[in-house]
Design goal:
350 residues, alpha/beta, 13 strands, globular, binds guanosine-5'-diphosphate, binds zinc ion
Length: 350
């Protein structure tokens, strides 16, 4: 066959890559997956291959179902812990009850997802355990935060078809605290994926819950689902200056108005348009304390410029520049001790 054999890397095992061939090709060849090595040329140029990468395979051996990856397409993002390329969205699962829905914990997940630049689909599971009114209360509450969530039940199959439609294309990674029904949901979405429900150490050997291993499961002809503990890390990954942008409520305020100081942290500065009586403002303040500590620890171990540079390319993630940068020349800076921020602005001014 002369056509390019293109596909998606669905698993990396030692030095082998499992490649799911694109659906039309798979139909034409009669095989859907090939176990591939990486061409020596790619190794020589240091070209890594990650789960989620779009690749071209050469020299297929249809008997042994083997091949060699000859080319890796430019990836549009790369998440770390575990490394996974070309992610389109995060499916965040929380339970409405059992365990009780903790708004602060939910906020923490949402901030981490927002910091990654990926869109979120939020599913509130176990709606069979509560009344419709209680479910609506939570959906409305999240709506005021700026999020559309859906109430689902893996027991009743409620909301599952709609969810399938939403994630039918591209790569979705599932996230959420334990006990909320993620494994049950994966089993519903992908029958036969053999993820055991309710067990802590799952899939011994493959280590589903280690941060290094990741595998894409096929949802449909064009959709994949990965179970990733990455966003489950309790540490907030956001930079202090970007935190407000991880709250849609604050973002909305900053679209129409600007704070007096371009580097306003929205605490007690005069002329702040973000500080206010929106529900999650207290979360913002608490998270800011956390990310500040985290970020000052980081900058203490490296020169300010270096830490900023690496931040801009970290993990190849979509980088969101602070909107307030645009107006920096028109407004004054507090010029206080946050060297990192000042270095960023100066660098940007060049
Ligand atoms: P995970 O830790 O997020 O993967 O959660 P599991 O899928 O292991 O589910 C945790 C517990 O919640 C199990 O006992 C499931 O049977 C239960 N569970 C999952 N989905 C539902 C649901 O829709 N309704 C109810 N009532 N229980 C559920
Ligand atoms: Zn402000």
């Amino acid at each position: 066959m002369n056509t390019n054999l293109t596909g998606t890397v669905v698993a990396v095992e030692a030095n082998f890559y499992r490649v799911r061939l694109d659906v039309e090709l798979a139909k034409a060849c009669g095989h859907s997956q090939l176990l591939c090595v990486r061409r020596a040329r790619l190794k020589k140029i240091g070209q890594q291959v990650y789960v989620g990468d779009r690749v071209t395979v050469e020299e297929p051996d249809w008997q042994g179902l083997r091949g060699a990856i000859a080319h890796v397409e430019l990836r549009y993002n790369l998440l770390d812990r575990p490394p996974i390329a070309n992610v389109d969205r995060v499916l965040l699962v929380f339970a409405l009850t059992d365990p009780e829905l903790d708004p602060f914990q939910l906020s923490r997940f949402l901030v981490n997802i927002a910091a990654s630049g990926l869109p979120a689909i939020i599913c509130l599971n176990k709606c069979d355990l509560i009344s419709d009114e209680q479910a609506i209360y939570w959906l409305d509450r999240l709506h005021t935060w700026g999020y559309d969530a859906m109430a689902i039940s893996t027991y009743m199959g409620k909301g599952i078809e709609l969810l399938k439609d939403k994630i039918a294309q591209g790569v979705t990674i599932i996230s959420g605290p334990s006990g909320v029904g993620k494994s049950s949901l994966i089993n519903l979405l992908i029958p036969g994926s053999e993820i055991r429900v309710g067990s802590v150490s799952q899939r011994v050997g493959l280590g589903r819950h280690t941060t290094r291993h990741v595998e894409l499961f096929e949802l449909s002809d064009r959709g994949f689902l990965a179970d990733s503990p990455g966003f489950t890390q309790p540490t907030l990954t956001c930079e202090p200056a970007n935190l407000a942008k991880c709250f849609p409520e604050a973002q909305r305020l900053l679209i129409t108005e600007s704070c007096q100081f371009y580097d306003c942290w929205h605490l007690d500065e005069p002329g702040c348009v973000v500080r206010g009586d929106w529900e999650r403002y207290t979360h913002y303040c608490q998270f800011l304390g956390e990310v500040e500590t985290h970020s000052s620890k980081k900058s203490a171990s490296s020169a300010p410029e270096t830490s900023l540079k690496s931040k801009a390319i970290a993990g190849g993630k979509v980088q969101q520049e602070p909107k307030l940068l645009k107006k920096r020349h028109r407004r004054q800076s507090r010029r206080f001790e946050h060297q990192n921020l000042d270095a960023l602005y100066q660098e940007d001014d060049l």
